[in-house]
Amino acid sequence: MNLQNLYDKLHYEIAAPALIVLTSTWVQVMAVYGTTLENITWSFLGNCYSWTVVGIMLTWSILSLWIPGKEYKGPATSAGHVPVYRDNGFQYFLASLLSFAVLLYFYPQVAIDISENYPQILATCNIIALVLCAFLYYKGKHFPEIAEKLEKQSMIFEFYRGMEIHPRILNVDVKQLIISRFSMAIWYLIAMVFFVANCMIVEFSWPFLVSVILLTVYLGKFYWWETGYFNTIDIIYDRAGYYLIWGCLVWVPSLFTLAWYRVVAEPILVDNNKAWLILIFGLLFIFLEYRIDWEKQYVRQNGGRCHLWLKPATYIMATYKTDSGATKKSLLITSGFWGIARHLNYTLELLTGLSWTLPFMGFGIWVYSYIIFLSVLIIHRIFRDEKKCSAKYGVYWEEYCRKVPYRMIPGIF
Ligand SMILES: NC(=O)C1=CN([C@@H]2O[C@H](COP(=O)(O)OP(=O)(O)OC[C@H]3O[C@@H](n4cnc5c(N)ncnc54)[C@H](OP(=O)(O)O)[C@@H]3O)[C@@H](O)[C@H]2O)C=CC1
Ligand SMILES: CC(C)CCC[C@@H](C)[C@H]1CC[C@H]2C3=CC=C4C[C@@H](O)CC[C@]4(C)[C@H]3CC[C@]12C
């Protein structure tokens, strides 16, 4: 067996089933042992409370995509299909923020109830996610809406990877619903709820508030730029399978919220002065990340005829061929932040995640779970993205890598 065969065997036959088993087990272990809350119990089927909470969140997310409003057309797939999204992300964010705040103001006990039912909420998300992934697999296998080119693989791998790129159910784009509506909102709801529960069980804490403020600004930024997210590899290339759908329905509300869950019933150890410093740096990181994503959009929209950092923008005019054989042009920016490192936005993503974790220093390794996972995800993503860019742009990508030799930290990596 040569190296390529060995890699394929590992990738298709071992990694995917192993990840399914490991991640779904980890979620349950963490829900029971990841906190010092006293009344934690667990049930594989969830309970009435958890089904109500998840049901309301799902209905809220579906409604946001059903109400009439502005549309955004995403990039065409290789089969020429143009996905259509609802362009009301920021309104959805503001409405969610307001509703959570009103709910917590009039019914603060909900914070304790949700915190104590957190394992059941995850169990409920898990059931919904597995049923949805099975449905999407069946639908994509037997009734795909768009005939995309697809390599045949083992059933487990296809379930993990997914079948369709842009599946729709009841006229709703499944990826927009699950990734950018449900998972981002439940991430936020859980963080807010743990903050209020901490105030009620222990006492009000500025460092905890700083952490929630940073998440609020980060998610606000995400929704402000939501249509930009429809141009990323998750949306353009990845299929709606276990990785994305289970990941966003279960992994995001569990692992991404673990730091807050760990400290929900504990007095916070970091002092207020450190918390202010973390807030200043965290806001700076979020702003810089936004600015990097913005620079790419700005230079490309202006066809390169613009300034970055008070100087004319520089770029490589790359050409590439589409699946239908047509030749197209695209800019690879070599000035501004894109001239410093090829994935500086990922560096800032990590620093931002770290900034809302640091207020919980002193509580051991649990609170760093998200940042450890994100580091692995991002390194893996860099190699996936570069493979994609190298195949798309060929010599132009090589030229870009020569001009901008580092990926995340100039001089190091
Ligand atoms: N919290 C989390 O779990 C994660 C968050 N993120 C965040 O999501 C956001 C989007 O991420 P993502 O789409 O992965 O990454 P990028 O925004 O970095 O987009 C990568 C794409 O940009 C284009 N590109 C690459 N280099 C250049 C250049 N020099 N000039 C112009 N275009 C270039 C290429 O696409 P093309 O085909 O258009 O040329 C490439 O595939 C980021 O802010 C990131 O930090 C990402 C991963 C995980
Ligand atoms: C099943 C698991 C082993 C892995 C699941 C991974 C997914 C949950 C995540 C993969 C990519 C992630 C995201 C990418 C970009 C984003 C933009 C950012 O501004 C907000 C977060 C996110 C949407 C993020 C969400 C989780 C992933 C989809």
TrEMBL record:
The chain crosses the membrane at residues 14-36, 48-69, 89-107, 119-138, 178-197, 204-224, 244-263, 275-292, 356-379. The keyword Protein transport does not apply. It is an enzyme of class 1 (oxidoreductase). GO terms for biological process: brassinosteroid biosynthetic process; cholesterol biosynthetic process. It catalyses: 7-dehydrodesmosterol + NADPH + H(+) = desmosterol + NADP(+); cholesterol + NADP(+) = 7-dehydrocholesterol + NADPH + H(+). It holds the Pfam family ERG4_ERG24. It is found in: Endoplasmic reticulum membrane. It comes from the Eukaryota. GO terms for cellular component: endoplasmic reticulum membrane. The keyword Lipid metabolism applies. It is a multi-pass membrane protein. Pathway: Steroid biosynthesis; cholesterol biosynthesis. GO terms for molecular function: 7-dehydrocholesterol reductase activity. Its EC number is 1.3.1.21. Keywords: Cholesterol biosynthesis, Cholesterol metabolism, Endoplasmic reticulum, Lipid biosynthesis, Lipid metabolism, Membrane, NADP, Oxidoreductase, Steroid biosynthesis, Steroid metabolism, Sterol biosynthesis, Sterol metabolism, Transmembrane, Transmembrane helix. Belongs to the ERG4/ERG24 family. This is 7-dehydrocholesterol reductase. It comes from Armadillidium nasatum. The gene is FBXO33.
